[in-house]
Write a structure and sequence with these properties.
single chain, alpha/beta, Glycerol-3-phosphate (1)-acyltransferase, 7-stranded mixed sheet, 7 strands, 40% helix, 13% strand, globular
Length: 282
Amino acid sequence: MTPDELKLEDLVKALKVVTIPREVPVFLIQSVLELIYKIEVTGLDFIPKSGGAIIVCNHTDMLDIPVQGIYSPRKIIFLGKEEIFRPQEQIINYINQPGSPFLQFPLSLTKPYIEDTLNSMGELYGNQLKEWGSMPVVRNFHGDGAKAAVAYYEELENYMISLAQAGEIVSIYPEGTRTESGVMGGFKAMAAKLAIRAQVPIIPSGINGAWKMSDPKAFLSGAAFKTKITYNIGNPIFPDQFPKGPDKKAAKELTEELEKRVYFLSTNRERRGQSRRFTTVL
């Protein structure tokens, strides 16, 4: 059977196992970004050519992820809320809501086919995100109780550690969410904790200029066009430079250092820190 003879949903299902290598979209996405924004990236040499690492950055906008991922010479694995991997659900919920024309004849006859096609396309999209380096995370997971939630997050941490130890670069935004005010928030200790447990370098980086620049208002007003976005990557902190002592105390000290370095990297590319010592020279 030729593709022309296949129904759309069958064709999509046949493509579900196919993913496009990361190298293919990098040029296209970078070209689109640079048509809209003026992007400057510094410090790419600080990303190791091989081996695992944790890279941290302040989180200002959805643009942070493509800027960080597309300009990196290596694939970076991102954590993403699981809803991002199922974009079809919002459309399916719409066509099933009370009053939807798809609940009425004759559109009701097409609804099962539309849902099957959307689910197949959503699975294809989710698989593609994973191929490009994204990993779904259930935010505010509760499960069947506190023990289940603890077990889930322990499993998640162990998985990220295994990725770093296997040679992958894992991106974590230590603020835990995007800034609402444009001002960098306090850092949580998970990134430092993972780097200490995995015994891999942790790379501070900072982004500036992207805040609210993916918002439709930025395009309608023209503010987005040629806005300068700067992404600075700093000196890695290597395991032999990590603070000594119990993991919890060491993670707290390392987090404080990372917060300081990322803040200055977001405003000044010269504030990279010193690779030969733990305390940043400001």
